[in-house]
Design goal:
Blueprint (H helix, E strand, L loop, with lengths): L4 E5 L7 H11 L3 E4 L1 E2 L2 E2 L5 H14 L2 E9 L28 H15 L3 E4 L12 H16 L4 E5 L9 H10 L5 E5 L1 H6 L4 H8 L5 E6 L1 E4 L6 E4 L8 H10 L5 E4 L10 H17 L1
Parallel strand pairs: 1-2, 1-12, 2-5, 5-6, 6-7, 7-8, 8-9, 9-12
Antiparallel strand pairs: 3-4, 10-11
Length: about 290
Amino acid sequence: MSPFTLAFITDEFCQDFERAVATAVELGYQAVEVRTVWDRNIVDLEPAQVQRLKAIADGAGIRILSIASPVFKCTHPEGGAIDHRFEQDAFHAAHQFADQPRILERSIQVALELGAPIVRVFSFWRTMEPQRLFGRIVESLALAIDQAAKHGVTIGLENEHACNIATAAEAAPVLRTLPEAHFGLVWDPGNSYMAGETPYPDGYALLPPGRMIHVHAKDGVRSATGDRVNWGPLGEGEIDWRGQLAALARDGYRGAISIETHWGGPGGNKEEGTRICAMRLKELVAS
């Protein structure tokens, strides 16, 4: 039996939440996380739509693990020039810095309504001098953690290649600075790889033990020019997923491994691509 909960971000299949949840059941997955549904970002859903999500998931016996929010996925006013090498994918969200308190509050509220223990956040769009914003990032995260903890919700910082905390090397100091119980890392080896780090074993070895609360899975090969990753089937790229999964199990990680395909799929069929990756993940964790 796998020590991990198997999950996927529903919009990697489609925008139809009911269809995505039915696919999770079909594939033997236990949980999902929500980013966009019905072509709207999770934080912009109407109350009735959030209730509908809950009813669909409960009816299928599927847990909603995380609100994949866009919190702090914006430009920080003190950051200076933006590094435009990486695509800033906001997933139907166009919120500015001044909007962050509102969307954080909304994200926590949606998490409570859906029974999701984690709200994922970021570290502002990457600047040419990421270290310059370290103090402001920590300050913003501390406020978010305090607000979420009051409701029993955990803040998960994702290392995102288009944001200031892109790698394990950049995430580790944040985790050491903020030891709060309601805070941890959403570890994305694919984003680490995109940012130029070798996610496993190099990046993983830098992370403080026990601070990982969620893991995203995708795979690919860096382009010849080195400025992008060609995403593909899980297990066929340059990320050592066998080694990473074995290390997670060895080190006592018992959270979710969640598919975030990014691959367009065979013939441009992203739903089929995500299905392939989901089946590959099951094979990898069972091997």
